[in-house]
Amino acid sequence: MTAWAPLVIVPVVLPLVAAAVLLLIGDSRRRAGSFVNIAAASAGLVVALMLLWSVNHAAGADAIAVHLTSNWAAPFGIALVADRLSALMLTIVGVVGVGAALYASAGWARKGSYFHPLFQIQLMGLNGAFLTGDLFNLFVFFEVMLAASYGLQLHGSGWPRVRSGMHYIAVNLLASSLFLIGLAILYGVMGTLSMADVAAKVALVPPGDRGLLHAGAAILAMAFLVKAAVWPLNAWLVPAYTATSAPVAALFVLMTKVGIYSVLRLWMLLFPADAASSAQFGGPLLLAGGLATLAFGAIGVLASIRLDRIAAFSVIVTSGTLMASFATGSTAATAAALFYLASSTFAVSALFLMVEPVQRMRSERHAQQPVYDTLDEDDNLDDEALPLVGRAVPVSVAALGLAFMACALLVAGLPPLSGFLAKAAILGAIVGEHPVGEAPVSTWMLMALLLCSSLFTTISLVRAGIRHFWSKGGRFAPRLKVVESGAIIMLILACLSLTVFAEPVLRYTQATAAYLHAPRPYVDAVFDTPPRPGPTTPDYPQTEAP
Amino acid sequence: MEVLLALVIGVLGGAGVWLVLRPRTFQVVMGLVLLSYAVNLFIFSMGSLSIDHPPLVTPGQPANLQNYSDPMPQALVLTAIVIGFATTALFLVVLLASRGLSGTDHVDGEQDDA
Predict the structure, then answer these.
(1) B78: domain range?
(2) Looking at beta carbons, which residues of chain B come within 8 Å of A136?
(3) Cβ–Cβ of A136/B90 closer than 8 Å?
(4) pLDDT 10s digits, A349-378
């Protein structure tokens, strides 16, 4: 038990309190609501960074902070566990959360009611899902996150949102049913739902019950794979993500990561490589699912014209890449994929946030036409008799164009930014896993699909860039608010710092992957955490009687 | 009793899946409700079926599953019922909004002519 263990509860409590405060503030005081929302999201980021720092600078068992809620000793009660993986995910949530909150304060928060409280509840669900060490509690945080997301998805209303929202809710309710069935079977076999306890006892399951255990785990995984948007369970994603408002779409990029995280966490805990007949159960299926998702997403990206559809299919590409890399079961690939997870989440969120300003550029209603007063007869004129050379590109178009280029490089994985480093690391890891000439077909397929998806994303984004920026030649300058550009710049800066500090980050993810592949410290940390002494414990420090 | 319960869960689940796949929004909602009934019964049955065994440990009796029933699934199912009920109610609101916006109760908001 380390000194900073009480900090673990903060990422759950802080958004909850903020949501309550925001309900009291109400929708009438917009400025105060936006301020509290951004402040709470920023505070969440700071807490996540503190946890990340503590986890990174502690050694051995101290690197796992356990908070026993209600002071029940493990395996009774619910433990909140902040380890390397959780801290990394919390930081990603924090960065994207601040970005989306900033962007929303520019106008989206006013398009409907109760945006801010729902936003905070969504953050609470995300943080809770990444922290909890109990399977049923994971279900509860999933539902908290989903309930808020139903409201956020419909924010602003309108037929496209309601139509896709209806499908989105129906699919997620079905997935929740699967989640509960899987939980019930696991409880029937194991008699416990604490993740650490399940991991400790999974080796003791008799051979006769193995089938039931595998069935339960597989049904549970179905629920997570729906959330992670793995093909063929991802038809809901593109309509829902493109119909919803920009800051919500940026936030929803995190929701697919919850599915990926849950699969990774439980797969590593339940079926580690030394689990005898259950070792890496379902690995080939996860790998095949990841490859199919990658192929589906890459083709979808290539077929998309609209920028929001490109971004939505990029989410699917990301899911496929992550799932396939994790499912290879190699520590190096897992480490590289965790780096890719951070980089791609920031990049795709930034892309979602850019959709709206870019489209604003096309509609003349919001745009102002620059004035050209230096028309000469010698000027090189374009189709509409405006000079091509010497035309000043408005600052907002230039900034937007540069940000779009950075996003395109990041999402497609081209040098020199972190997207390239992540993909290169994944490729290096899966190639280095096997001796030359002995690599299985799946490795070659993963390599080919990774490179193809990069190519397709490049083609698609270049096409969109030509359409939106080049062919217009900056004729219409969009009105860009400071907070909007601030949000986009922040996310791109996060990727830039990932690029600059790639080595320490990769070292961190390598330690995370090594830790994930040997789940014993996790189990020990949860079980070795003693509850705080209470009035009924014998050695409770007595206070003086009055 | 086990066979009866298994049949009940099976029929509820089967009817629920069939209804969810129907093209009318009301049928989808009813299907989801039936499915959640099936799931809740399933969770409940995981605590082993027994009659006349309260989930309370009485002094003097050994605390094993022969003398009392497992309280865990009962607590779990309570949470699951509340959450399922709330999300279904939310879904009903969306359904009504969709009916109002599209003028039809088809899940895609448009009728096939076939």
Answers:
(1) 2-48+68-102
(2) 76, 79
(3) no
(4) 999 998 888 877 766 544 455 545 555 555
